Amino acid sequence: MSNIPTVVKLGGSCLDDMSRAWWDDLAEHGRSHPLVLVHGWSKPLKQLSSRYTDPSAVLRDRYGNQSRWTTPEVIADIKTVSDTMGEQVFALLEKRGITAERVLGSDGLVQAGQGERWWWREKQLVELDNLVGPITDVNPGALKNPRAGHCHLVTPLARNTDGKVVNTDADRAAAAIAGATEATSLTLVTDVAHLLIDGQPVRQITAEAAAEFRDRGATGGMRKKLRAAGEALERGVDRVIIGSAPVSELLAERTGTVITRT
Fold first, then answer.
1. Residue 205: helix, strand or coil by DSSP?
2. What is the per-residue pLDDT for 227?
3. CATH for 6-260, among 2.40.110.10, 3.40.30.10, 3.40.1160.10, 3.50.80.10?
4. Is the overall model pTM greater than 0.85, yes or no?
5. How many CB atoms within 10 Å of residue 213?
């Protein structure tokens, strides 16, 4: 069996919505493939405190990119909700015969560069210390037990050049991890069945066409997923699948949207 993992990004917004059959399918796949599960935390963070639903919790930089305003307190809250999510995922996998361990990206797995400092607040550009940063490197050696029947659950924090723990986008972290581990596919599990363009579901699309739509019409979470997809393909991943179905169905391309280099 190969030690090349199946990398899956599971949105925090859909963790509670995954059926028993979805977890059965993931465990069945994981019995013959190492699993790397990268989780988001947006919905659990909003459930933790109403301040995370306030529009001021999200910043927009001078280039139009959005980011959660991240302070040391927010980092602590991310770790808190990640602990709870980890317990949930471990229980779901271990009862199905898959062992699991949690990995904080900031513990030697994900490195980040210096983040943007100028952000729009109330229609003015102001300088803010926001603990976010672009991913610059991934050390696959931090995933110490890549083997069939085992899952690494990754919390996508990173450590920057100043040694600070910073927030990163979970989709883009999954893309970087997939590239660093030489994964052939990246699966982005979300709450929509397909990428929609002009209201129509798209079953397959090239990276070039996906990037054109990303810049022309994609919004919110899908815009970030398309950016992550492009970065995964640039890092050597063969294909990216976006959808809401069981992982084996997405990998078999029976549903979802498949993005390829050509």
1. strand
2. 93
3. 3.40.1160.10
4. yes
5. 19
